[in-house]
């Protein structure tokens, strides 16, 4: 097959490209230029969008012996990922930009361009596994290395995208990938993993949002209220600086009467109100998802000991009952958790699993807390 290998400049994508070439595929390496000004993105080895990363990817392609190109998708990335990130925070929600990048950029814009150029598939360094099911559909499963499993952020992929994807690292642990990179002479063998959000240069999400949102924020200041008494505990300079479940940086100034820490329970961007309270008030037992994306056949109801949901990229699995219904604006996903989850915010993704198989995902629109 003719394969486009998306090379971020890290060790995982380099080894994935090398494995694809070694398997006999006709591989072309590409690096995605996602920043309109790469010099403004994070320097060093913490990100995936720097000039340094592009150079690392080019050197890896030279060692592997494959052609290499840079594809400029900065405008598409800004519109579909960065703007979405800002809009969601301004609305009081908590988005996952990596998941949105996979949906809109790596497996939409890149795949569309690759197919248009006559390529058959896109290979990436994500940790997930693909298998063909008994019904002939391509199934996505968790990686062998559950500690590095990235199926959560790939839960937005549909059947068409899965049929044109390759994940060569799904059967390997991260330490073995690094050892293999060293054996192959790839200089990125010891390069640290990327962290945080690639377009937030210093990892300070709240500071970045305060600078970028400007007057777009519906309310740049407001009260911090106690959930139990309604008392005003302090002031803040923007709801976009808070996420549900946050404990640090609340700037309340005094502890709760019982001495226990407070957490952000609710965010209301229109009034500018942030409500805080004890951790037990964060317990969620039901949630609703909208805009679902299914990896294969659309389910109607999922229940049983193997049905779970994951609510964060590296979060726990929760046994659940999942029901798909038709709502006023399309399909909706109702999830009843068999054990409570804490700090779940609208805007996050709920990814549904049947054993190790990814069924699909949806964007959380509402949660229902365990009664006090």
Automatic annotation (TrEMBL):
Pfam families: tRNA_Me_trans (PF03054), tRNA_Me_trans_C (PF20258), tRNA_Me_trans_M (PF20259). Residues 213-277 form the tRNA-specific 2-thiouridylase MnmA-like central domain. Keywords: ATP-binding, Cytoplasm, Disulfide bond, Nucleotide-binding, RNA-binding, Transferase, tRNA processing, tRNA-binding. GO terms for molecular function: tRNA-uridine 2-sulfurtransferase activity. The active site is at residues 101, 198. Its EC number is 2.8.1.13. Disulfide bonds join 101-198. Catalyzes the 2-thiolation of uridine at the wobble position (U34) of tRNA, leading to the formation of s(2)U34. This is tRNA-specific 2-thiouridylase MnmA.
